[in-house]
Amino acid sequence: MRVAILDDEPAELARVEQTLRQIPGPGDQPWTLHSFERGEDLLRQLRRETFDLLVLDWQLPDLSGLSLLRWTREHMEAPPAAIMLTSRDAESDIVQALNAGADDYVSKPFRPNELKARVMAVLRRHGLQRSTATEVLSFNDLTFDDAELTVTRAGQPISLTDREYRLARCLFDNLGRPLSREYLYQRFWTHEEIVSSRPLDTHIYRLRNKLGLTTDRGWQLLTIYGYGYRLESVASPGEQGN
What we know:
The chain is of the alpha/beta class. Helices cover about 40% and strands about 20% of the residues.
């Protein structure tokens, strides 16, 4: 999970970081937290990186959290989940932020357990936090079984490594959403593996071939130059004529 936290007070940034670090349980992958004291700095990162969640203060000396929230909703194809965390607690402020696209609104000073609960609720609504129940999900003719880490097409198994399976699930979980290379590397590779080769490009090539991620099967796995990849569902040639 990649989270961006925006607040111009260093002590508040540290307190939010400490709270969010407590969310992943034993055995879960630690979250990657990126803290920003200026809205313009976060805006620059949003143009080049992928985040799952934004935690935004409202009042900043340069670009306000509300302005940044509006920018994500107006300019990003699949904007990240967003929570406003601010001392502005008038009803009109809350309504304004929610109408601008905020998923939730938490007033300062925040209570750590409440913030954690609200973060988890937002992530569940966005499909970023799964329940503990085993999932079997189908996308067109592909079926993913999280218990067995297997993929089948029309009942026929497709051989994938564990990492290929997890990368494929990430792409399908984020259909239509651009995912940066940095985001994918941080989720699925160690630093040592990254510097030794170009493992992401190799895995993307394999998944295109193994899963048949081509337009004739209803998929398009796009390379976004200088950014990363985006998997899209498209009409197959047979459907286009209907």
